[in-house]
Design goal:
19 strands; 30% helix; 20% strand; alpha/beta; single chain; 2 domains; 472 residues; eight-stranded mixed sheet; 11 helices; elongated
C-alpha cells in the first residue's frame, strides 16, 4: 500500500506528488490520459501570476499583494474567499525557486505579451516543457506513475479515504489528493449547467474546449455523491472568446484572439454588446467567452482596421480581409445595413484622445451604448480585418469547498486523509472571471499544501499505530 495516492496528472497533481515525496512519503500518481497527452490543461499554460516586491530575473518592477488582491477582486466581482486568495497570492511569491529545483525554467515574456512582464513569469517552452520537467522530477523522486488509468470510483467511509478504483483495478492508500480537473469536456454536464436560452438554443452545444478532452468531471460527480461540501456555480468557468475555427479539444493558447480591445465586437445581428476597452486584455479576456456564449448562435466577430496591426499577438489563422467595411460585412454574412449603422455610430462617437494601448488611455466614446471606455479609435483605415469568435472553455469553477489545509469537507468537517488541489477546488478563489496566470498560482499553492498535508496525515497514522502497538 502506498502512503499517498494522487488522482490526476496536471500541474496541481504533480506539485502534490512532488511535495509528498519530498516529505518522505511513497506516492502513486494515476493519470487518466495516455502518456502522450499527460498533463491535462497544464500542457497549454504559458505563465504564472506572481506577487513580488522588487524586480526579479524575469519580472520587472513590483507587484504587491494588495495589487494582486485588487486585480482578483475586480475580475471575480467579490466572489472569492479572501483568506484563501491571499494564501495563494503569498505562495506565488516564493514558488519559483521550488519549481526551478524541479527543472522548470522561466523566460522573459515573448513579444506581444510585454504588458504582463510585471505580473507574470513565463515558462520556457510553455506548458509542455513545464509538465515534462515535473514528470521527470517526480520519477527521479520515486513517484510511481500509471497512465491510461481513469479513476471511476472512490471509497470513503465517514469522511475517511480508503481506496480508488479504475475499472477492475483497486488502489488503496493511507491518504489521497484529488487533482483530476473540472468537467469542461463533459458536454452533457455543460448543457445541464447552461440550459436553454430564450431562443431555445443549448449554448453549450457550440462551446469549444481549449483544454484536455479527458476532464469529464468524474471525480467531482463521485465526491458530490459522497456528500462532500461543494462551492461554485456550475455555469461559471474560464471561458475565452477564441477563433471559431479552433479544434473541438486541445486548441490551447494558439486559438486566442487578442485584438478585441483594439476594435469592436459585433454579434450575428451586427450589434455591439459590451465595452471592448473596459480593461487590459489579460484582465478581461476570460469574460469574453461568456459574453459570446450569450449571443445568438454563440458567435461574435472582432472587427479591426489596419491601424491595429502590430499592437497585438497575431492569431495562428488569418482573418477575413476586405478593402471596405461593406465588403467585410458581405464576406462575414452579416446584415450590411445594420453593420454599417453600428460602425458609423461607433466611429462618430470616438473621442480622439491620445491612443496608448500600454495604459488605460483617454480614447473613449461619447453618447454610445455600450460605451467603449479606452482605446476607442475609429475603424476607418483599409484593409479591414475580422476574426469569428466562439466560446472556448478552459476549466470549470464548480469544486470542493476547502480551507487553508486543502482538506475535503463533509458537512463542514474536514477529512483526516483526503485533500484536493487545482481545478477541483479553484472555485474557492475564482467564483467567476479570471486574470492571466492565476489558475497556475492556485494549482501550485494548493498542490503543495495538499501534498504536504497528505504526507503529514500518513505520519500521524503511523505514529498513532506505533503508539497503539507499543501500548498493547
Amino acid at each position: 500500500m502506498k502512503d499517498v495516492l494522487v488522482i490526476g496528472g496536471g500541474n496541481a497533481a504533480l506539485c502534490a506528488a512532488l511535495t509528498a515525496a519530498e516529505a518522505g512519503a511513497s506516492v502513486l500518481l494515476l493519470e487518466s490520459s495516455p502518456r502522450e497527452w499527460r498533463g491535462g490543461n497544464s500542457q497549454h499554460v504559458r505563465n504564472l501570476r506572481c506577487m513580488h516586491d522588487a524586480p526579479q530575473d524575469v519580472l520587472i518592477e513590483s507587484y504587491s499583494e494588495e495589487e494582486f488582491w485588487q486585480d482578483l477582486l475586480k475580475v471575480t466581482g467579490g466572489l472569492t474567499d479572501e483568506k484563501l486568495a491571499r494564501l495563494v497570492i503569498r505562495a506565488s511569491s516564493n514558488c519559483r525557486p521550488w519549481m526551478q529545483k524541479h527543472g522548470v525554467r522561466f523566460q522573459p515574456p515573448l513579444s506581444g505579451a510585454l504588458h504582463v512582464a510585471r505580473t507574470n513569469a513565463f515558462f520556457m517552452g510553455g506548458g509542455k516543457a513545464l509538465v515534462n520537467a515535473l514528470y521527470r522530477s517526480a520519477q527521479a523522486l520515486g513517484v510511481e506513475i500509471r497512465y491510461d488509468t481513469p479513476v471511476d470510483a472512490i471509497e470513503i467511509v465517514g469522511g475517511h479515504f480508503l481506496s480508488a478504483s479504475s475499472g477492475a483495478q483497486r488502489f488503496e492508500a493511507r491518504s489521497c489528493v484529488l487533482a483530476a480537473g473540472g468537467f469542461e469536456s463533459n458536454r452533457e454536464w455543460l448543457r445541464e449547467a447552461w440550459g436553454q436560452n430564450a431562443s431555445g438554443e443549448w449554448p453549450a452545444d457550440n462551446f469549444l474546449i481549449r483544454g484536455t478532452r479527458f476532464n469529464q468531471g468524474v471525480m467531482l460527480k463521485r465526491m458530490m455523491e459522497a456528500g462532500a461540501d461543494m462551492i461554485g456555480d456550475p455555469s461559471q468557468s474560464h471561458c475565452v472568446a477564441i477563433d471559431a475555427r479552433a479544434p473541438l479539444y486541445d486548441g490551447g493558447i494558439c486559438t486566442r484572439i487578442d485584438c478585441v480591445s483594439l476594435g469592436v465586437v459585433v454579434n450575428q445581428d451586427a450589434e455591439r454588446f459590451y465595452d471592448e476597452g473596459e480593461d487590459f486584455w489579460p484582465k478581461r479576456y476570460a469574460i469574453w467567452g461568456r459574453l459570446v456564449a450569450q449571443q445568438r448562435g454563440q458567435l461574435g466577430y472582432s472587427i479591426i482596421d489596419a491601424k491595429a496591426i502590430g499592437h497585438f499577438m497575431p492569431p495562428v489563422f488569418p482573418g477575413t480581409v476586405a478593402d471596405s467595411l461593406p465588403e467585410l460585412a458581405r464576406k462575414l454574412g452579416l446584415p450590411e445595413a445594420a453593420f454599417m449603422r453600428t460602425m458609423n455610430d461607433y466611429n462618430a462617437a470616438c473621442n480622439h484622445g491620445q491612443f496608448d494601448h500600454t495604459t488605460l488611455d483617454n480614447c473613449f466614446t461619447e453618447g454610445l451604448s455600450p460605451a467603449k471606455t479606452h482605446w476607442a479609435r475609429t475603424v476607418d483605415t483599409a484593409p479591414f480585418y475580422s476574426y469569428a469568435l466562439k466560446p472556448g472553455v478552459t476549466f470549470t469553477y464548480l469544486g470542493l469547498k476547502v480551507d487553508e489545509t486543502a482538506a475535503v469537507r463533509f458537512a463542514g468537517k474536514p477529512s483526516d486523509n483526503l485533500f484536493v488541489a487545482g481545478e477541483m477546488m479553484a472555485g474557492n478563489v475564482l467564483g467567476k472571471g479570471y486574470t492571466a496566470g492565476v489558475g497556475m498560482s492556485i494549482g501550485i499553492a494548493f498542490g503543495r499544501i495538499a501534498g504536504a498535508q497528505a504526507a503529514r496525515a500518513v505520519k500521524q497514522m503511523k505514529t498513532t499505530s506505533d503508539t497503539e502497538y507499543a501500548a498493547a
